[in-house]
Amino acid sequence: MERSVMSSDEDAWVSRARAGDQAAFEAIFQRYERQIYSFVYRMMGNADDAYDLTQDCFIKAYRNLEKTSGDLNVSAWLHRIASNTCLDVLRRRKRIRWLPWENEKHESLLPSRSLDDPEHSLVTTEIRQDVQAILNQMTPRNRLALLLREFEGLSTEEIGEVMGLSRSAVKSVLFRSREEFRKLYAASFGEAQ
């Protein structure tokens, strides 16, 4: 039910923003800024790049909003812009670098949560570092698909919109991504295949 209310609000914001209402676009920005920043940070591995590219993403979105269709999926559209923006920069740099997310450094951008259990925090940090180490070894396409699904929580259809793939192609890429992750994890940590 929250999703349909959100979609209704977003539809109104998009319609008003297309008509030039800057406050409506500001509402879209407020709704998605943290999510897009988090995604861009994971892609780029650098807070300064993440800040700059998040701003670029929203500037591109603002400039191209009038070109979108009436049934716009705002989340998938913004993730696609962010993904393309990051990949363009990375291609120019001729490198792809993935660094672990540093919760302490970016705590203000994350949903609030309790850190009362230091043992839990330590284990969570170790797991996060192990996962990031495996992600660093993956092919860029598989890594992108896995990040969109597992970290961003996008649906198969939304991932297809972001990556420009059909639903069946997304399923194949996700299968290969998970398989690559599993094999790399087994090789790195000695788990049975």
List the helices and strands and how they pair.
Elements: H1 2-18, H2 22-44, H3 47-64, H4 74-93, H5 118-137, H6 140-151, H7 156-163, H8 167-189
Helix pairs in contact: 1-2, 2-3, 2-4, 3-4, 4-7, 5-8, 6-8, 7-8
Q: Which structural class matches the secondary elements?
A: mainly alpha
Any guess at the CATH architecture of the largest domain?
Orthogonal Bundle
Helix content: over 70%
- Using DSSP, what is the number of strands? 0
CATH class of the largest domain: Mainly Alpha
Q: What does the largest sheet look like? A: none
Distance between the termini: 41 Å
Q: Segments where pLDDT lies below 50 for 5+ residues?
A: 1-5
**Total domain count:** 2
Structure annotation, total helices:
8
Q: Please identify which CATH superfamily of the largest domain we are dealing with.
A: RNA polymerase sigma factor, region 2, helix turn helix motif
Average pLDDT number: 80
CATH topology of the largest domain: Rna Polymerase Sigma Factor, Chain: A
- Overall geometry comes to globular
Strand content: under 5%
